[in-house]
């Protein structure tokens, strides 16, 4: 088969991008030809994929997305394929991988009347409607039940079009694949004392991932613990306003920012807790990467994959409506009480050993190539 993959932007450290690459490589490894359309690509280009960069010139995101879609449609007419797989919502897809929340639900909850008059709103609504409306042919690869409920409420999508995927953690994230002494080695490498606390946050889009909440939680710690705590924030974003907040709260020395890094597995081995108090998160693959690494997690209940943290008792889930004080209490408990932290870590390792947290790319490839339909 020839399979076209449509993704607006590829960069190595996004959760959606990592899922895309694993699925594309899995499809290619099965002997199919994979063509990828992108607006931009950062990082290495795998030899197994034919990557086509689509020229876009608009100054707005929705303008560039429209140009991209129209260009790809013309190219597909001239160079037909057997399947079109989208990692962003757009008309005409055979399969859509839903790593995002329902836009109609988000607008209903968060936006006012005037937002609905904008070109941005019209664009995103029309592309989402084309993907999920009744009668559309698109098969829908979903990560959580909550996503399905939201889309069905707004679009009355036929239930048989939805396919829930298991998570897809890279095997190298698993605690049993870490070399002996990984914690000690990673701490030495990053200049973190053995008796200091390392709190890790991983994810691009700092605002949506709640980095401000993490900084406030660190600032709330009693001085003796705060002085020994390091918050490392890893992700592709501009840290400016968050670094400013850390300065204002007198924790600038405790908080450090890094653009995407290739040694996240090492940092997870070195860390005491993963913190992820997101405002919005369809799934949150990093939560399960932490579980696989045996690292306890503090997370907000809005995250689709928070279910796994609660189910495995691998940390603490902060319920909605969010209260900063609840996160503060849980962070203090997780750092101060070694017994609690140890119990969470043991539960995480057990969960990593007994649950399917790994087979997303294979299951997605089955559906894309026709083995898993229906």
TrEMBL record:
SUPFAM superfamilies: UDP-Glycosyltransferase/glycogen phosphorylase. Pfam families: Glyco_transf_4, Glycos_transf_1. Residues 185-349 form the Glycosyl transferase family domain. The keyword Cell inner membrane does not apply. The keyword Transferase applies. CDD domains: GT4_PimA-like. GO terms for molecular function: glycosyltransferase activity. Coiled coil: none annotated. This is Glycosyltransferase family 4 protein. It comes from Jejubacter calystegiae. The lineage of its organism: Bacteria, Pseudomonadati, Pseudomonadota, Gammaproteobacteria, Enterobacterales.
């Amino acid at each position: 088969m020839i399979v076209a993959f449509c993704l607006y932007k590829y960069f190595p450290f996004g959760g959606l991008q990592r899922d895309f690459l694993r699925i594309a490589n899995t499809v290619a490894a099965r002997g199919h030809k994979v063509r990828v359309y992108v607006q931009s690509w950062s990082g290495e280009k795998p030899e197994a994929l034919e990557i086509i960069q689509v020229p876009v010139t608009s100054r707005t995101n929705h303008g560039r997305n429209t140009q991209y879609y129209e260009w790809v449609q013309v190219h597909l007419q001239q160079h037909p394929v057997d399947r079109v797989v989208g990692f962003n919502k757009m008309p005409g897809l055979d399969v859509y991988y839903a790593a995002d929340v329902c836009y109609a639900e988000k607008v209903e909850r968060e936006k006012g009347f005037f937002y609905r008059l904008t070109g941005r709103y019209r664009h995103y609504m029309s592309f989402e409607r084309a993907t999920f409306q009744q009668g559309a042919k698109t098969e829908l690869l979903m990560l959580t039940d909550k996503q399905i409920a939201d889309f069905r409420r707004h679009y009355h999508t036929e239930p048989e079009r939805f396919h829930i995927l298991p998570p897809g953690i890279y095997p190298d994230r698993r605690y049993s694949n870490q070399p002996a002494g990984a914690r000690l080695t990673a701490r030495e490498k990053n200049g973190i004392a053995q008796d200091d606390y390392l709190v890790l946050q991983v994810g691009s889009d700092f605002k949506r991932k709640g980095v401000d909440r993490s900084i406030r939680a660190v600032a709330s710690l009693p001085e003796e613990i705060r002085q020994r705590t390091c918050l490392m924030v890893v992700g592709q974003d501009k840290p400016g306003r968050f670094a400013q907040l850390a300065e204002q709260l007198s924790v600038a020395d405790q908080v450090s920012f890094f653009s995407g890094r290739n040694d996240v597995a090492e940092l997870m081995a070195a860390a005491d807790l993963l913190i992820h108090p997101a405002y919005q998160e369809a799934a949150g693959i990093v939560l399960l990467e932490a579980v696989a690494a045996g690292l306890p997690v503090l997370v907000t209940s809005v995250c689709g994959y928070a279910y796994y943290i609660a189910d495995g008792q691998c940390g603490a889930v902060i319920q909605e409506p969010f209260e900063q004080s609840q996160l503060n209490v849980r962070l203090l408990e997780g750092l101060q009480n070694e017994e609690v932290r140890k119990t969470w870590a043991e539960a995480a390792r057990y969960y990593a050993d007994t649950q399917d947290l790994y087979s997303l790319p294979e299951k997605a490839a089955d559906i894309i190539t026709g083995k898993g339909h229906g």
